[in-house]
Design brief:
- The complex is a heterodimer of chains A (about 100) and B (about 400).
- Chain A is globular and about 40 Å long.
- Chain A is an all-beta fold.
- By secondary structure, chain B is an alpha/beta fold.
- In chain B, strand 4 and strand 5 form a beta hairpin.
- In chain B, the strands form six sheets. In chain B, strands 1, 2, 3, 4, 5, 6 and 19 form a seven-stranded mixed sheet that branches.
- The chains are: A mainly beta (about 100), B alpha/beta (about 400).
- At the A-B interface, loops of A face helix 8 and helix 9 of B.
- The complex binds flavin-adenine dinucleotide and FE2/S2 (inorganic) cluster.
- The site of FE2/S2 (inorganic) cluster (FES) has 10 residues of chain A, from loops.
Chain lengths: ~100, ~400
């Protein structure tokens, strides 16, 4: 198991999403939903679009390209044209640092 | 045993079939298409697939197993020749006939052929299907001078792809600007700049008189007599809706098959969706016939739900995108006949958005590399949220925050 630090929790406002590049992993999108943090892969499973450029609609992230949606909390594809889920990561916040935990 | 029959296994047909299962319809579904492929999305055909950077398979809408798992009978390489309205049957020629309780027509468009002398010479290409793409892609492996006839999005995307593959490219536009569906001459000008910067020559008001060559095209003669040399010609002059079976069945036609906001035609139990339709859009308060991914995807979903007994209206704010030379251009709304544009970001730069207002109401937007602005503009228009032109054009304004009004 390995924790990877992404951002400082104070750096992302509620209702916002940002993209983080991590060595050896695909780009990750980090979300702040009313103070709770979530993370998924940043690349849409339907095409070449960045989730961090999309916008948050309740618990969903709306892809900026074709408007497909994913549940931010689980990565589940829940709106067309997206069919394949986004990988969602386990997130922990310690000492003001948002991290993901990889089981490896 | 009769059930639902879908004629035309493209994007609209496949999305409709999958929606029928999603909402719980358990009867028989037969999806009939004349192409050999399983249903696929067409936009990559003029972009990544043409250049060889995306595989043709990646544009499949669902994989083959999906149809088996969902118990959807997919008949490929099968064409419907006629509809017998009285007996509710479709005739598939040698493949027999099939009865339906409800029928969806989603036959799309075919490429309009260039009707001039020499139009049938070798080296003249069109683009609608995977077969067309592989033929064109093969031809573009050589290098030379490609003449593109048509200044619409398809011609321009092919111009961009061919240029990247090392061809010299000349675009012959019939009118006096590119992408004439864009709201203004000014914004079309930015598209022209993009092509000029990338080495494409564009000729305006260039009517075509003839294509010349001995078996294989060698040059194009313009109406003013000028002769433009060519090693290959791509024709992108629009599409013709595949309405023939609908005409014979007595469906009302107005450009395409006329449907209301529920997707119903004038004949009971016959519906239509996608590019083949001219559909009433209550938001726009008019019939629309865009050739767009959005309608194929979302209208078909609504029509399928209505076939399954729901009553939902398709009234989406129109949206379209095109990719040229790495620039993603998106449009939303119906910005024609609007007042001056309000720009967010510097007009003509790498990334900017033009917002259009009519009587101080936001009616549309066009963005260059700013897809996010379009998503938000579409929502603002859909919800009828009042925004001020100076506010949206000020980059200090967070556009997302306007949605919370
Ligand atoms: C090269 C290309 C690039 C595009 N790029 C973009 C883009 O960037 N953005 C955008 O918004 N839109 C784009 N589009 C438009 C978009 O792809 C279409 O709007 C969409 O494919 C329409 O879907 P449809 O299902 O209505 O029709 P189609 O996808 O055309 O499907 C209709 C199917 O019905 C079949 N058929 C017809 N008649 C019969 C019959 N009698 N019996 C059996 N089968 C029949 C046809 O063979 C075809 O397979 C592009 C289109 C093309 C061709
Ligand atoms: S690329 Fe995300 S919805 Fe298509």
């Amino acid at each position: 198991m390995r924790n990877i630090a992404l951002i400082k929790s104070g750096d992302l406002e509620p209702g916002e999403v940002t993209k983080v590049e991590v060595d050896g992993l695909p780009a990750i999108a980090v979300y702040n939903l009313d103070g709770e943090f979530f993370a998924t892969d940043d690349l849409c499973t339907h095409g070449d679009a960045s989730m961090a450029e999309g916008f948050i609609d309740d618990n969903d992230i709306v892809c900026p390209f074709h408007g497909g949606t994913f549940d931010i909390r689980t990565g589940e594809a829940n709106g067309s044209p997206c069919l394949h889920n986004l990988k969602a990561y386990r997130v922990l916040v310690e000492d003001g640092i948002v991290m993901i935990r990889l089981d490896e | 045993m009769s059930g639902f029959v879908i004629v035309g296994a493209g994007q609209a047909g496949a999305c409709a079939a999958s929606t029928m299962r999603k909402v719980g319809y358990s009867g028989k579904i037969t999806l009939i298409g004349e192409e050999p492929d399983i249903p696929y999305e067409r936009p990559p055909l003029s972009k990544g697939v043409l250049m060889g950077t995306e595989s043709p398979e990646s544009s499949s809408i669902f994989d083959r197993d999906f149809y088996r798992e969902k118990n959807i009978d997919l008949l490929t390489s099968t064409s419907v020749q006629a509809i017998d309205v009285d007996h509710q049957r479709v005739d598939m020629g040698s493949a027999g006939s099939l009865s339906y309780s409800k029928l969806l027509i989603s036959t799309g468009l075919r490429a309009r052929k260039l009707d001039v002398p020499g139009g049938d010479l070798g080296g003249v290409y069109y683009l609608r299907s995977t077969v067309d793409t592989s033929v064109l892609s093969e031809a573009l492996q050589q290098k030379g001078h490609l003449v593109v006839i048509g200044g619409g999005y398809l011609g321009l995307e092919v111009a961009s792809s061919a240029r990247k593959m090392g061809w010299k490219v000349t675009v012959l536009a019939r009118g006096d600007r590119l992408l004439s569906k864009l709201p203004s001459r000014e914004i079309s000008g930015f598209v022209h700049d993009l092509h000029s910067r990338n080495g494409v020559e564009v000729r305006f008001n260039a009517g075509i008189k003839a294509l010349n060559g001995n078996g294989y095209v060698k040059s194009v003669t313009l109406e003013d007599g000028e002769v433009v040399p060519a090693d290959a010609v791509f024709v992108g002059v629009g599409g013709i809706p595949n309405i023939e079976i609908g005409v014979e069945a007595g469906l009302e036609i107005e450009g395409g098959i006329r449907v209301n906001q529920y997707g119903e035609t004038n004949v009971p139990n016959i519906y239509a969706a996608g590019d083949v339709t001219s559909h009433y859009n209550p938001w726009a308060r008019q019939y629309l016939q865009p050739e767009s991914w959005q309608v194929a995807q979302n209208q078909s979903e609504i029509v399928a739900r209505n076939m399954c007994g729901e009553r939902v209206s398709y009234e989406e704010v129109p949206w379209f995108w095109t990719d040229q030379f790495g620039c993603n251009i998106q449009t939303t709304g119906l910005p024609l006949d609007s007042d001056d544009a309000y720009y967010r970001g510097e007009a003509g730069s790498e990334s900017f958005t033009a917002f259009y207002f009519r009587k101080s109401q936001l009616v549309g937007a066009v963005a260059f590399n700013a897809g996010m602005d379009i998503r938000i503009a579409q929502k603002l228009i859909e919800k009828g949220i009042q925004v001020d032109p100076h506010e949206v054009s000020d980059t200090a304004t967070n556009l997302r925050s306007l949605l919370k009004r």
